[in-house]
Amino acid sequence: MSRPSSRTFLERLADGVVVGAEGYVFELERRGYIKAGPYVPEVILDDPDALRQLHREFLRAGADVMVALTYYAHREKLKDVGREGQLEELNRAAVRIANEIAAEGGALVAGNICNTWSFDPADPITSGEVVRAQYREQLGWAVEEGIDFVIAETNDFVGEALIGLEVCTELDLPAMVTFASVQPEKTYDGYDYVDAVKRLADAGAAVVGLNCSRGPETMLPVLEKIRAAVDVPIAAQPVPYRTSAAVPAFESLESPAGRAFPIALEPFAHTRFEMADFARRAADLGVSYVGICCGGAPHYVRAMAEALGRETPASKYSPALDLHPVLGDAGTEAQAGAHEVMGTWSAGA
Ligand SMILES: [Zn+2]
C-alpha cells in the first residue's frame, strides 16, 4: 500500500487546520459532465480531463486534500445507469486521477465512500453485509492505487458509518467519518448527531464531524456541541447555502418557484466572504478539517483558505477591486459593503 503524501494526514492535522474541498458532483453537473438525478460520476471515464481540471482548480485554491471522485461509484448506483460492468475501472481511474493532480502540489489523497442506500436499519445484519461488500471492493481498489486516508461521508445511519469505519480499520487506513444532518436533531437510525459522532470516535475514527445538508449557520451550533463532546479532531464541510433554524438542511429549501434542491439553489447561495467567515469561525471553534460540500467551487475554497491565513497559487488572481477601471476607489467601498453584509449575517447566526 502506498502513501502518496510525504506527511501523513495525522501529522498535518497536528500542525494546524487542514483545508478540504468537495462538491465535485454538483460542480461537474453544472459544467455538463454529470447527470443530475442519478449523480453517478461517469465523467471519470467519459471526460477525465474535466475531472483533472476541477481537481487542479481546487488544488490551486488551497485544498490540502484531493478527494477521489468515487462518491456514488458503488455497485448499487452504477446499476442505475447500466454501468456496473465498469465499476472497478471507474473506481481505479478516480483514485489515479486524484493522485496525478495531488502530486502537482503535494496534496494528500483521500479515498471516498459514502451512504450506499443499501443499508436498512430494520435489517442491519443482512443489509450491512451488502454495504460491507461494497465498501471492501471500493477501498480495496483505492488502497492498491494509493491513498493517504479515507473520507467516509454523508452518512445517514450510525450503523452504516460503523461498517465503513470497520472496513477502513481492516485496511489500516485512518478514517474521517462525517454525517449528513438532514433531520433537525437525529440520524435516520435515531442517534442525536453529537452521540452519533461520539460513537464513531469511540470506535476509532481519526476524525469525526459533519458534511453536506447544512449551511454554515445551522452547522456551527452542532459543531460547537461536538467539539465539547469528543477528543479527536473534528471536520466540517457545509454546503454554501443559506439554511436557517426553520430550514436547517438545504434539501428542504424552497424559493417562490418551488423546491430549490438540488438544481435551483442559486437564490440561496452564500458569497465567498460569508464562506471565508465560516472558515474563520470554524477554526476558532477548534475544527481541524475545514472544507465545503455540494455547491463548493474554487472561488469559495480560495476565500476560505485565505481566511485561514494561506496564500494559495490562485491568490495571484485574488480580487483587487481598487484597480477596477470604473469602480476604482468605489471598488474598495463595494468590498467594505460586502464585509458589512457578512457582519450582519455573522451577528444573526
Ligand atoms: Zn454534499
From TrEMBL:
Every Hcy-binding domain range: 6-308
Alphabetically ordered keywords of this record: Metal-binding, Methyltransferase, Transferase, Zinc
Pathway named in the protein's UniProt entry: Amino-acid biosynthesis; L-methionine biosynthesis via de novo pathway; L-methionine from L-homocysteine (BhmT route): step 1/1
Gene3D superfamilies: Homocysteine-binding-like domain
Superkingdom field: Bacteria
Residues where Zn(2+) binds: C212, C293, C294
Cited InterPro entries: BHMT (IPR051524), BHMT-like (IPR017226), HCY_dom (IPR003726), HCY_dom_sf (IPR036589)
Cofactor: Zn(2+)
Keyword Nucleus included in the entry's annotation: no
Protein name: Homocysteine S-methyltransferase family protein
Keyword Kinase part of the UniProt annotation: no
Classification via PANTHER family: BETAINE--HOMOCYSTEINE S-METHYLTRANSFERASE 1 (PTHR46120), HCY-BINDING DOMAIN-CONTAINING PROTEIN (PTHR46120:SF1)
Pfam hit, one: S-methyl_trans
